[in-house]
Amino acid sequence: MIRSMTAFGHADRSGEWGELGWEVRSVNSRYLEVFPRMPEEFRVVEPAARERLGNVAKRGKCELMLRYKPAAGGVGPVTIDVERAKGLIAAYQELERLMYDPARVSPLDLLRQPGVMADTKQDLDALRELALEALDEALAAWVASREAEGARLAATIIERLDAMGPLIEAARQRMPEIVAANRERLRERLAEVLAQVDENRIEQEMVLLAQKLDVDEEMDRLESHRVELRAVLERREPVGRRMDFLMQEFNREANTLGSKSADTEITRVAVELKVLIEQMREQIQNIE
């Protein structure tokens, strides 16, 4: 299954504690690059988030963004660490005996001391687990988006591959005409400078000319690359780099075909092939 590197996925959760949501965005890149953005209280889940994304992607520049909005007034029952409070009161009383005219300490002053009032915020461990569950859902949506876009890219590439077939066949059919035309032109030129045309000389020259004009190998390799690319499109693994390599091979054969061309029709075929190859290459830049 071909996957695009450009995709988007999201998932949200809400409850009495508030709201949180993930957004996963990605664009093409040679390697897997992960850029997490999340509130500090959730930073502890970053390694797990990176690992989860790495399990479903091998290439792409990916942004993981977590939004968290606690519920307004979402404070639970106030609980006090009684033993700590007792310890602080005893310490205050001891200080009062040592100080001259000490200031009175109010219960509110005591509550402000670290550790006296137990944390009344939502249990962060539970929220973090919930965040990771939501991330799994967002990643699943993101992967589905990558596959849907990948299917569209694959269809576009296959369309270009199909268009290459008639061009290659047209070049094959044109070659005998090109060879015959060049034979006749060679015969006419020799007749102009020689009193008697030497058939052996003509054949020798034609062998040399045919070697220069022969593009059978290039067309065979183009066909072979077409078959290979179709097979690669069926693989269930990252294939973008392999497809990049195949595009280089396609270009090499099309360039050679154009350089050997001694005919306007073959030149046209070579140009059309290069246009199709470039269109495929542009699509392949976004495939994982």
Question: Any overview of this molecule?
Answer:
The protein has helices spanning 46-56, 82-98, 107-111, 124-193, 199-213, 216-233, 240-260, 264-284; strands at 7-15, 18-27, 32-37, 60-70. It is an alpha+beta fold. The chain folds into 3 domains: 7-74 and 124-147, Ribosomal Protein S5, domain 2; 76-120, no CATH class; 149-284, no CATH class. The longest helix is centred in the middle third of the chain and has 70 residues, at 124-193. The chain is rod-shaped, with a radius of gyration of 37 Å. The mean pLDDT is 85.
List keywords for this structure.
single chain; 288 residues; alpha+beta; 4-stranded mixed sheet; 8 helices; 62% helix
Structure summarized in a few sentences:
With 288 residues, the chain is of the alpha+beta class.
Q: Give the strand content.
A: 5-15%
Pick out the low-confidence regions.
Answer: none
Task: Choose one word for the global shape.
Answer: rod-shaped
Q: Average the pLDDT over all residues and give the rounded result.
A: 85
List the strand order in the largest sheet: 1-2-4-3
Number of strands: 4
Structural class: alpha+beta
The Rg value, from CA coordinates, equals: 37 Å
Number of helices: 8
Distance between the termini: 10 Å
